[in-house]
Amino acid sequence: MFGGKQVVVCGYGDVGKGCAQALRGQGCIVYPICALQAAMDGYRVVRLPEVVRSVDVVVTATGNKNFVTRDHMNRMKNGCIVCNMGHSCSEIDVSSLHTPELTWERMRSQRAN
Q: How far is CA 9 from the centre of its chain?
């Protein structure tokens, strides 16, 4: 499923480390939260604005509110998957996407938005 895909994991705490380890064989790159530790563990450390145009999957595990912004999403390539691995659902600025020019399509009936 991830073969040949570029995945960026934003955050390198307990959740980010586990996610990065699981994706290591797929060429995972890590956003520089705990950058020194990630680099010492052998990951390529980058800034999200530098790679957002080229990655296929963005995984947030920072715990920070609105870490992935509308500006990031506007610059992502078509088909890029954005997901959150942490316990908080506020890392992706979904509210900025509720505008008339965007069409929403329900993918799963279990989700409210």
A: 6
Q: Which helix (H) or strand (E) holds 50?
A: helix 48-51
Under 8 Å between Cβ of 86 and 61: yes
Q: How distant, in Å, are the alpha carbons of 67, 87, 100, 102, 108 from that of 62?
A: 8, 10, 30, 27, 25
For 24-47, what is each residue's pLDDT tens digit?
877 677 776 788 898 898 888 888
DSSP per-residue codes, 61-91: -S--TT-B-HHHHHHSPTT-EEEE-SS-S-S
Residue 5 identity (one-letter amino acid):
K
- pTM of structure: 0.84
Give 61-70 pLDDT, tens digit per residue. 988 899 999 9
